[in-house]
Amino acid sequence: MENTSSSANPLLELSANLAAIVERVGQSVVAVHGRRRIPSSGVVWRHGIVVTAAHTLRREEGIELTLPDGRVAAAVLAGRDTSTDVAVLKLDGVDLDPVESGDARSLKAGHLVLAVARADEFGTSADFGVVGSAGGPWRTWRGGRLDSFVRLDGGLHPGFSGAAVADARGRVMGICTSALARGFGIVIPGMTVERVTDELLATGRVSRGYLGVGTQQVTLSDAWIKKMNLSSNRGLLVNSLAPGGPAEVAGVLLGDVLIELDGKPCRDMDDVQTALGSVSIGQPLKIGLIRGGERTECSVTVGERPQRDSCR
C-alpha cells in the first residue's frame, strides 16, 4: 500500500509547510483599494498600521481595505514616500495581528521565498520562487535608500505589489514592489519599511536634501588629476540649475565640475545622495569644483527637496 504521509514524502511535507506559511502570513495581509480596477496588497506591520507600495495609490482619500475575514474597512493615508515606494495607512477600530518580521540582509541568491498577496475574488494568493540576487544597501533611481538589495526571480503578478515576502521560516522580510526596477520585483526590506514608517507617522513625509543641480558624469583628464592631486578620475558636470535653488544661490555655474562634497570624492549621483540625507537640510555643504581649469570651492546651504508625492 502506498504511503502518502507527509513524513514519508518530502514534497508533501514541503507543500504542507508552504501552505501553512501562506495561511499564517495571510492573516496579516489585506487588499488595498487605492486605484481603479485591480487592488494592490498591504501588510499589517504594526497594530493599526498597514504598509503598501506607494505607486499603487492613485488617490489620497476614500482608500478602503478588504480584511482577511472579508470585511471592508476605511483607511487613512498617513504618508507616502515614492523614493522607497512605501506608503503607510492607518486602520482604526480593527485589531489585526502584525506580521513577524525578519532581516532581509540574511537573504542570499537561491533562498526560497513566498510572496503572499490578497485579491477580492480569490482571497489569499501566493507566489513561490527564489531570490534572484541579493546585496548590500542600494540607492533607488528615485533617490531612496533600501537597506539591502533583494531581487526576486521573475516578475510579479497583478496585485502583488505591496504583498508580504516571507522566508522559509515564515518571517516577513519586507514587501514587494514592481516600481523600482524594470522586468522583475524588488523587496523593500523590513528595516527600510520600519525607518520610513517612523518618519511618515511623525511628519507625513520623508525629507531629503536638495542642491538643485542637474549633472552628468565625466572623466577627468590626467592633467587635472595630477595638477589638483585628485583621488578619483570621475566628476559631475553641472548641466542645469534650478532657478533660485541652493546651488544657484551659492554661485555654482553651468559647466562647473563637482569633484568633492565635504572633502569626499564626488564621482556619481550616489555620492551626492549620500551627502544629502535628511540631517543635511539647512546645513552648509562645502563643494569642491573645477571651473575654467582651476580648482575652487563654495559653500551651499542644503535645501529640502520639493515634495512630489501627491497622488495622481
TrEMBL record:
The organism's place on the tree of life at top rank: Bacteria
InterPro entries, sorted: Chloro_Bact_Ser_Proteases, PDZ, PDZ_sf, Peptidase_S1_PA, Peptidase_S1C
Gene3D superfamilies: 2.30.42.10, 2.40.10.120
GO molecular function: serine-type endopeptidase activity
Keywords for this protein: Hydrolase, Protease
Domain PDZ: 200-272
Keyword Hydrolase attached: yes
GO biological process, one term: proteolysis
Pfam families the record matches: PDZ_2, Trypsin_2
Protein name: Serine protease HtrA
